[in-house]
C-alpha cells in the first residue's frame, strides 16, 4: 500500500510568491537558504521537504512567475484586437519597467542570462516561455494581417521575432537605464512598423 502524499502545511501560493521576490531580486546563485527562509518564514527543512532542494524551489518559483506575470499578461492581451493587443502588451512592459524601483527587471530574462547558457534544463524551460511569447506576437500579427490592421510588408514570423527581440532588449535596458524616453524610443519604432502604409503618417 502506497503512502498518500501529505498536504502542504503552509500557504503554498504565499510561499512561492515570497520565493519569487527573493530569486527575482538576487538571482539564483546569490540567493541563499537564509534569504529564502527569512522571506518565506519557513525552515530550510520545510522548504526542502516540499521542493527537494534550492533548484527545485527555483523551478517552482519560475513557474509561478511565468504563470502569474507573463501568462496572465498574454491572456489579458489576447482578448483585444490584434494591433491593440501588441500595443497593450508593450504598454504594460513599459509601465512595469519604469515602476521597478529595485531595478529587478524580468525574472525570466534574468534567468535566461544567468542560467540558460550553462543549464540545459532551465534553457529548455526558458526557451518554452519565450516561444510562447513569440507565439502570442505571431498569432496577433497573422490575425492583423488577415484583417488589414497590420502591415503585410514583412512575413508574420519575421515581425514576431523582431518584437521578441525588442522585448528582451527593453527588459535588459530597464535594469540599467529605466528612462522613459530611452525605452519608448526602442518600443515606438517597432510598433510603428506594424501599421499598414495607408494608415501611417502622410
Question: How is this structure best described in words?
Answer:
It is a single chain. The protein is mainly alpha-helical and 202 residues long. The protein folds into two domains: 10-69, Orthogonal Bundle (Arc Repressor Mutant, subunit A); 80-196, Tetracycline Repressor, domain 2. The chain has helices at residues 12-26, 33-40, 44-51, 54-78, 82-98, 107-114, 120-147, 156-176, 180-192. α5 (82-98) crosses α7, α6 packs across α7 (120-147) and α8 runs antiparallel to α9. It is elongated.
How many strands?
0
**Mean pLDDT, all residues:** 91
Summing up helix and strand content along with how strands pair, one would put the structural category as mainly alpha
| The number of domains | 2
Characterize the largest beta sheet: strand count, sense, and whether it forms a barrel. Answer: none
Pfam families: TetR_C_13 (PF16925), TetR_N (PF00440)
InterPro entries: Homeodomain-like_sf, HTH_TetR, Tet_transcr_reg_TetR-rel_C_sf, TetR_C
Domain HTH tetR-type: 9-69
Protein name: TetR family transcriptional regulator
Amino acid at each position: 500500500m502506497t503512502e498518500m502524499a501529505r498536504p502542504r502545511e503552509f500557504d503554498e501560493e504565499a510561499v512561492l510568491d515570497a520565493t519569487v521576490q527573493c530569486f527575482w531580486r538576487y538571482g539564483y546563485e546569490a540567493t541563499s537558504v537564509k534569504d529564502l527562509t527569512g522571506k518565506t518564514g519557513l525552515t530550510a527543512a520545510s522548504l526542502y521537504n516540499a521542493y527537494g532542494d534550492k533548484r527545485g524551489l527555483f523551478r517552482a518559483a519560475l513557474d509561478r512567475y511565468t504563470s502569474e506575470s507573463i501568462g496572465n499578461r498574454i491572456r489579458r492581451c489576447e482578448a483585444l484586437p490584434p494591433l491593440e493587443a501588441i500595443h497593450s502588451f508593450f504598454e504594460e512592459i513599459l509601465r512595469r519597467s519604469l515602476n521597478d524601483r529595485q531595478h529587478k527587471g524580468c525574472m525570466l530574462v534574468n534567468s535566461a542570462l544567468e542560467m540558460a547558457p550553462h543549464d540545459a534544463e532551465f534553457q529548455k524551460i526558458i526557451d518554452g516561455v519565450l516561444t510562447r511569447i513569440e507565439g502570442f506576437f505571431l498569432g496577433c500579427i497573422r490575425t492583423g494581417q488577415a484583417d488589414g490592421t497590420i502591415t503585410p510588408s514583412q512575413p508574420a514570423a519575421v515581425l514576431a521575432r523582431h518584437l521578441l527581440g525588442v522585448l528582451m532588449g527593453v527588459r535588459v535596458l530597464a535594469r540599467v537605464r529605466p528612462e522613459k524616453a530611452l525605452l519608448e524610443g526602442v518600443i515606438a519604432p517597432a510598433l510603428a512598423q506594424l501599421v499598414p502604409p495607408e494608415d501611417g503618417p502622410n
